[in-house]
Amino acid sequence: MRLLDDPRERVRRAAAGHPRLPARVVVRLLHDPDTAETAAQHPSLPVPVMEQMLQRIKPVVEATPGP
């Protein structure tokens, strides 16, 4: 967990992707711009959090014109 506080972005992103990271920590990492993308792809991310994320982007996706 100390690696998540490392001053180097690369180290924090790598730590954020660790498969044994607790879900509560993964959710917290969504709020850090340096680790959010990695945290959003984490297998421990709770389904309700995934659904909230989808609801936030759904209007953007629907408003985007298709090919």
Commentary on this structure:
The mean pLDDT is 85. This protein has helices at residues 9-16, 23-29, 36-40, 47-63. The protein is built from 4 helices and no strands. It is elongated. With 67 residues, the protein is mainly α. It starts with 8 loop residues before the first helix and ends with a helix.
Overall outline: elongated
Q: Number of helical runs?
A: 4
Provide the low-confidence segments as ranges.
none
Beta-strand level of the residues, as a percent range?
A: under 5%
N-end to C-end Cα span: 44 Å
Mean of residue pLDDT?
85
Helix/strand-derived category reads mainly alpha
Q: From the alpha carbons, calculate the radius of gyration and give it in angstroms.
A: 14 Å
List the helices and strands and how they pair.
Elements: H1 9-16, H2 23-29, H3 36-40, H4 47-63
Observed structural traits:
67 residues; 55% helix; 0% strand
Summarize the structure.
The chain has helices spanning 9-16, 23-29, 36-40, 47-63. It is an all-alpha fold and 67 residues long. The mean pLDDT is 85.
